[in-house]
Amino acid sequence: MRGVSQLLRTTLRPAAYLGRPSRLLPQAPRRTLVSAANLQFGQPLHETHPHLIAPGELTPGITALEYHHRRANLAKALPRNSIAVLASSDIQYRSGAVFYEFHQEPNFYYLTGFKEPQSLAVIEKGNSDVEYTFHLYVRPKDARAEQWDGARSGIQAAQDVFNADEAGDINNIPAKLPDIINGAKEIYTDALGNIRSKSAFSKYFGGLSTSQPEGFQKLLQASKVKPLRPLMNQIRLTKSENEILNMRKAGQVSGKVFTDAMRTPFTTEKDLWTTMDYSFKMNGLDGWAYIPVVAGGRNGLSIHYVRNDQPLKEGEMVLVDAGGEYGGYITDITRTWPVNGRFTDPQKDLYEMILRVQRSVVSLCREDADMSLDKLHRVTENGLRDGLKRLGFDVSGDALDVLFPHHVGHYIGLDVHDAPGYPRTDRLRAGHCITVEPGIYVPDDERWPKHFRNMAIRIEDSIAVMEEGPYVLTTEAVKEVVDIEALRR
């Protein structure tokens, strides 16, 4: 494991060196100095993109030292003489040579900050509980490939910039990885699915498994292989101050975009979404965090309606579930408002009932409330049931399952549904980030009061749980009836 003094040499200085001195030699060889203006990497760094990355940061808002602490936390959670193996995402193709925008595998990104495909990270823990070795295998520099596909960071940058203790060419995995794996008592990984798929990883690992008796595939099927996700969920669940600041920036900008959208008359779902998408990017976010829901009228009855291609009609409401992303961290917001800017009486009655429940549940998002996501859900159900009764709904039988078919919240972070598989029964603690999103969806059925039928209302905010109170990350998105209606005056 590298020392802190080495770790703080995170990004290259204005006159940066390429070629790190050997620690084994009594006197280091002379470094080759290169102007930062001439350096090219596979992702923004402070030296090449000072308008995006601050000094000391490896990715927006997150320093290299924080990435080291993350790897150290994983190493502490691993048994001695074990390894964690993480594969990057690969490029996905829409058709032929047309590819989708690349999105890094979240656990890989969380531990490395490295945003290129065809990469492999290994966290190796020996006999010490405080030291680890960070291996990073990446695509090598290749002038011809970079002419077509853009710059790569390369093997040297894997060490000098991303602080790998050992770095190598991903194409040499069949020769390098077996020794590391054979020396480990236990292997923690979720990478086997990637390797079995018909991705670029097949050529790296497939050849290894067929050419060597103790190949990677065979070793990963042994009894000493365990899933990595439960350990990563534990580590990622509690957000650092910098992570929360990233999510706050995403929430602040996204909230303002929502409020501006409520202020503006739109005639189609597509126009509304196109304007919001543009506004996310123009106001400093990386883009949208997930495929949005922009649902006018009865379209909102589909929880994940994403066609977003219908007209918006006078007298109806529009439900928008969307959010922006900053530095890989997302925000998740839902607001519902009248297309014409004015609530009808039934719309107002149902909306304000849901809003009261949402505010009461948000107030419980604090560590000293001894809440879990499931407890918050039960509080939500009780509040909605009582509110619906007062509005004339028959809430007997399965009524609430029909009218409120989803959970009140989920964890958020690098993923929209962060820490997948982590139990909702665990107590919420300071640093956990969640959504609170009660909603009511009234089908066109005689079972329900006529003046509420075909209404769909959901109100969602992103919340950071704190010791004594909630930190609402999305407060700029207005939600009071009086504030929404005032926007069009």
From TrEMBL:
Keywords: Aminopeptidase, Hydrolase, Manganese, Metal-binding, Metalloprotease, Protease. Signal peptide: none annotated. SUPFAM superfamilies: Creatinase/aminopeptidase (SSF55920), Creatinase/prolidase N-terminal domain (SSF53092). The keyword Hydrolase applies. Residues 62-193 form the Aminopeptidase P N-terminal domain. It is an enzyme of class 3 (hydrolase). It comes from the Eukaryota. CDD domains: Prolidase. Its cofactor is Mn(2+). InterPro entries: Aminopep_P_N, Creatin/AminoP/Spt16_N, Creatinase/aminopeptidase-like, Pept_M24, X-Pro_dipept-like. The keyword Kinase does not apply. It catalyses: Release of any N-terminal amino acid, including proline, that is linked to proline, even from a dipeptide or tripeptide. Its EC number is 3.4.11.9. Belongs to the peptidase M24B family. Catalyzes the removal of a penultimate prolyl residue from the N-termini of peptides. This is Xaa-Pro aminopeptidase. It comes from Neodothiora populina.
